Amino acid sequence: MHRRRRTAFLLSAALVAAAPLVSACGADAHPGAAAVVGGERITVAQLESRVDEVRQAQRAAITDDAQYAQAIAKTGGLARNTLHGMVLERVLHRAAEDNGVTVTDKEIQQFRASMEGQAGGPQALETAWLQQYGVPPQRLDDNLRTEVEAQKLAAALGIDMNTAEGKTAFWKTLSSASKELDVDVNPRYGAWDAEKSGRVDAKTPWVKDVTTTATGQTT
Questions:
Q1: Which of 119, 130, 144, 147 has the CA that lies 20 to 30 A from 82?
Q2: Residue 204: which region, alpha, beta or left (left: phi > 0; alpha: psi -120 to 50)?
Q3: How many angstroms separate the CA atoms of 67 and 163, rounded?
Q4: 191 three-class SS
Q5: Residue pair 130/136 in contact by the 8 Å Cβ criterion
Q6: Residue 181 in contact with residue 188, Cβ under 8 Å?
Q7: Residue ranges of domains in the chain
Q8: How far apart (Å, rounded) are the C-alpha atoms in residues 49 and 64?
Q9: How buried is 108 (Cβ within 10 angstroms: 0-12 exposed, 13-18 middle, 19+ buried)?
Q10: Strand pairing category for 198-199 and 40-43
Q11: Calpha distance 154→4 (Å, rounded)
């Protein structure tokens, strides 16, 4: 499972490097919005609902109070990271549309079946995605759709994400989509860098892990 997952998440890892603040929206400009993407609001209520889904899934999976408290501590930036994922999904989808890329339900199910086989079954895959990436079971198909979409976009662009040139080309494509959508993020959740299609302060635990795995280095 690691090889397929590493490639997909490297796409995201490349987009969350620190960069100068480009733009952000305030509560006065977009009341109740956590972010605005393509003129559509991601409300604070929608974001909080997503965060609650993760917390409920963590609570269901971890019955020991001490272990649950540790899990909460490790995901203290969950709201910001969840918002980043929600925005990135929309940016990626616009880039895919611009390049004629579509994803079918059959492709998602085939990809999921493959991942389940490598993970050791459906439950093992759900557990892995929850623990490592904060994706609750009910959002797994949506997340896998994004993975497939990213891979198909890279293929459509004719780039190899295992090379520096490929990452730069992919980054440039998402940057263009981000600018088209005029992404604004409420300062409460950081700021969005249109050039790098990532939240300026985004620091997710898996970025370091995935990068380390890809380079073969340890810290």
A1: 119
A2: beta
A3: 39
A4: coil
A5: yes
A6: no
A7: 2-215
A8: 24
A9: buried
A10: unpaired
A11: 14
| Structural contact between residues 204 and 16, judged by C-beta atoms closer than 8 angstroms | yes
Helical spans, DSSP H, in 38-101: 44-61, 65-74, 78-98
Q: What is the pTM of this model?
A: 0.76
Query: What is the distance between the alpha carbons of residues 188 and 80, in angstroms, rounded to a whole number?
Result: 9
> Domain 2-215 carries which CATH code?
1.10.4030
**Alpha carbons 9 and 95: distance in angstroms, whole number:** 17
**Listed residue (134, 106, 121, 150) closest to 6, CA to CA:** 150
Amino acid letter, residue 139: R
> How do the pLDDT tens digits run along the chain, 219 residues long?
444 444 344 444 443 332 322 333 444 456 789 999 999 999 999 999 999 999 999 999 988 899 888 888 877 788 988 998 899 899 999 999 999 999 999 999 999 999 999 999 999 999 999 988 889 999 999 999 999 999 999 999 999 988 889 888 988 899 999 999 999 999 888 877 766 655 444 443 322 333 233 334 333
8-state DSSP, 37: E
